[in-house]
Write a structure and sequence with these properties.
- 49% of the residues lie in helices and 0% in strands.
- By secondary structure, it is mostly helical.
- α2 runs antiparallel to α9, α7 packs across α8 and α8 packs antiparallel against α9.
- The two termini are 15 Å apart.
- The structure holds zinc ion (2 copies).
- The site of one zinc ion (ZN) has 7 residues, from loops.
Length: 263
């Protein structure tokens, strides 16, 4: 009984409730972004494939034979041994043992991934991607824009967490054309990515009202982006849920035998 009282006190703590509700907010944000992300990642892949077709005058883009460690990019390092695309950990830096794609596509997709990366210098994350699937699987290309490990086995937006989805829009120039928001590091996408880390890594598991409201407001702003998200049914539903989270007075479900504690 003493434990139950203790739990009850904990659950009554408004700052603890804010923390729990902010986690719920992230769930709704992901729900709101998921279908949109799948769709835009597919469009990005089509865009890359078309660019490769134009570049090498191909009618089909198919390979499945190349691996990252041995892939020779389309570009070569310049005479100062620098990557002309400004990419630090680039295959052009280690030309020994590299092979050109036998189908003339993977090196071009490699270049495309770097050119489309928005950080300065461009820094695609290569640890989650499988080059052999680049021609056929849009998410294998997209995962190069999620700069965190742990996504290697993920193959669609439903399998990717909120952080991963936010990373896509923060790092991919193509995906940024699908939102009005300008990624500056202080925008709602970047702020929400930081908020997610703050929520997940919180040692106190408590959150002030001001902070909580700000986090949820930023999540709503992401889903109300004026270009497309604003009018999509899944974002509209998610925004409704987020508004409810803001005002919902979280309280534990009453269970038989515990009524006297929960009043
Ligand atoms: Zn390079
Ligand atoms: Zn290839």
């Amino acid at each position: 009984m003493a434990e139950q009282f203790h739990h009850q006190q904990q659950l009554k703590n408004p700052k603890y409730r804010n923390w729990v509700k902010s986690g719920l907010g992230l769930k709704y944000l992901k729900d709101g972004l998921q279908i949109f992300s799948d769709e835009k990642v597919k469009q990005q892949h089509d865009d890359f494939v078309n660019a490769v077709k134009r570049k090498h005058n191909l009618t089909t883009v198919n390979c499945g034979q190349c691996i990252l460690q041995k892939l020779q990019p389309d570009h070569v390092r310049n005479k100062n041994k620098q990557c002309p695309l400004g990419c630090k950990d680039c295959n052009c830096q280690y030309p020994g043992g590299k092979n050109a794609c036998p189908n003339n596509v993977c090196g071009a997709i490699y270049d495309q991934i770097i050119l489309n990366h928005d950080s300065n210098p461009p820094a695609p994350f290569w640890k989650n991607t499988c080059v052999q699937k680049w021609c056929t699987d849009e998410w294998e290309v997209a995962k190069c824009y999620i700069n965190a490990p742990g996504y290697a086995s993920k193959s669609n937006a439903s399998e990717i967490d909120c952080t991963g989805l936010l990373h896509l829009f923060i790092n991919s120039k193509f995906l940024q054309t699908k939102v009005v928001c300008k990624i500056t590091g202080h925008d709602v996408f970047s702020k929400t990515r930081s908020a997610r880390n703050a929520i997940f890594h919180s040692t106190s598991m408590e959150m002030d009202d001001i902070e909580f409201i700000q986090y949820i407001d930023d999540m709503i702003a992401v889903l109300e982006d004026g270009k497309e998200l604003l009018n999509r049914p899944e974002s509209i539903t998610a925004v409704e849920m987020l508004h409810e989270v803001l005002t919902f007075n979280l309280f534990v479900l009453k269970r038989k035998g515990m009524r006297k504690f929960f009043g």
